[in-house]
TrEMBL record:
Membrane among keywords: yes
Gene of this entry: Atraid
Keyword Phosphoprotein among UniProt keywords: no
Organism whose genome encodes this protein: Setophaga kirtlandii (Kirtland's warbler)
Superkingdom of the source species: Eukaryota
Protein name (Swiss-Prot/TrEMBL): ARAID factor
Keywords: Membrane, Transmembrane, Transmembrane helix
PANTHER family: ALL-TRANS RETINOIC ACID-INDUCED DIFFERENTIATION FACTOR (PTHR15926)
BP GO annotations: positive regulation of osteoblast differentiation
InterPro entries xrefs: ATRAID, EGF
Bilayer-spanning residue ranges: 101-122
Length: 132
């Protein structure tokens, strides 16, 4: 129940992860998070909006605003929110990369760059150090 809170606006990301939220009362100045389409029943009276029965945006055939890319599945993530989860073995941006992350290659390049830069700085800066 948020009716007594002096809220001017509630960002939609505030309810991210609230997948089991089934009843919510908000002040009359605000709407239900995710809009009326994200709820099965929206009741308005003088003191509040009552939002009941959160709908899954993944099952909605009427609104294609949340298309998940190929190689992924849609998962609800709160009122009017979804997330696209990559199916194995895909990963990365829009689930376009297949396989696993090349940890050995990444670690080797990062390690050799760090050692090279350290040696360069040590060699160029050691002559500037004062002798005791």
């Amino acid at each position: 129940d948020l009716t007594e809170n002096p809220l001017a606006a509630v960002p939609s990301a505030s309810f991210r992860g609230f997948t089991r939220l089934q009843s919510l009362a908000v002040p009359p100045a605000l709407e239900c998070p995710g809009g009326s389409d994200a709820w099965q029943d929206v009741t308005v009276d003088r003191s509040s909006w009552l939002c009941q029965g959160q709908r899954s945006s993944c099952n909605s055939s009427e609104q294609l605003a949340w298309p998940c890319p190929e190689n992924s599945v849609c998962a609800p993530d709160g009122p009017g929110l979804v997330q696209c989860l990559c199916e194995g073995p895909f990963h990365g941006y829009r689930c376009l990369r297949e396989g696993t992350f090349p940890m050995l290659l990444f670690g080797g390049i990062l390690g050799s760059a760090t050692v090279s830069l350290s040696l360069l700085l040590w060699g160029t800066q050691r002559r500037k150090a004062k002798s005791p």
